[in-house]
Amino acid sequence: YRRLHTKETRLSEFSQREIKAMLGSYTKVLFIRDPLHRLIATFLQGMGISPSFSSFVQEVLDSGTHNSSVAWKPLVSLCRPCLIQYDYVVMFGFLRQELGHLLRRAGLPAGNLLPELTDSQVQWTYRWLSEQMFSELSAQQKKRLSHVYRWDLAAFPFSSSFLSD
């Protein structure tokens, strides 16, 4: 497809015919992560200059979803799951299991290509971090975050997310 190998070509820059042909010929994989975990990871990576998680969350809430960073923008606004029928949806915390399945489906040897991932440790660590950091937030911040990410929480199985409580 023309412009296919240019840097950061948006899907909207292609014609409807090209979009349909591309989406029909590709295996579409969507990697998802609990919105609260995404915020925590962004904060821990120092992408926000805030001294506390609570003040970082307040900056995120004040920035609004239109001006927000891709790091914390709602997933449904980034990946359009209602418009694009993904072949696989892989949830962070189940990467080793899911990537092994994907590699086998593609006819590749899964064992040698997968990095050492310990899904259960990742899940436990983020559960603990979520408890700690979520407790720093005010009731209003929790409510606003749940509202910002309401469509992500409805579209994806984040049943254990603190934001869905």
TrEMBL record:
Subcellular location field: Golgi apparatus membrane
Taxonomy, superkingdom: Eukaryota
GO BP term, pick one: carbohydrate biosynthetic process
This enzyme's EC code(s): 2.8.2.-
Tagged with keyword Membrane: yes
Pfam families referenced in this protein's UniProt entry, alphabetically: Sulfotransfer_2
InterPro entries tied to this protein: Carb_sulfotrans_8-10, Sulfotransferase
Protein name according to UniProt: Carbohydrate sulfotransferase
Organism expressing this protein natively: Leptocoma aspasia
Chain's gene name: Chst8_1
